[in-house]
Automatic annotation (TrEMBL):
The lineage of its organism: Bacteria, Pseudomonadati, Bacteroidota, Flavobacteriia, Flavobacteriales. One of its GO terms (molecular function) is DNA binding. The keyword DNA-binding applies. Residues 27-46 bind DNA. Keywords: DNA-binding. The keyword Cytoplasm does not apply. It comes from Marixanthomonas ophiurae. Pfam families: TetR_C_24, TetR_N. This is TetR/AcrR family transcriptional regulator.
Amino acid sequence: MKPASRKIEIITTASRLFKEKGYNAVSMRDIAQAMGIKASSLYNHISGKQEILSTLILTVAREFTNGMEQVVSKKGTSVEKIEKIIAFHIDITVTYSEALAALNNDWMHLQDDDLKQFVNMRDDYEDNVRIIIKEGIKAGEIEARHPEVILFSMLSTLRTLYLWYEKRGKLDVNILKRDMVAVLLKGIV
């Protein structure tokens, strides 16, 4: 096996274990055991658990940042932008569901520059969504509700979608996008 693919295998295995047990409860020995190799072999490919966590979280955070940059850079109504945000959240959920568990549950274990980088990306992301919501309210596209309530309702649903998605038998992505947009933008009544 090539070193790059072994590193990916290590990160994938660790991601699954982090989701099942949490970052603190997983050791390098646990990762090696799950892969059927010796723990010392892991260090030929990766420096340690912190590198794994950073790789997982920052990869997903960059996906969110790239998606947001595409939304913000294009013209469109606030509603159209929110629809695109919901759609790429769903795409990221489908692609990175295990890594999302680390992002949501274990980000606080990041260290130094990785922690700062993640927090900055998360804050910028939320600021962009907040701006889109406020612009939509100002333009009359979105009901005049408190922007923070809208932001919280939308992002808390989208951030935990990975939990629901796996339990519900992995609903067709196109149906999920259509119905999530409808429920989050129009409500249920």
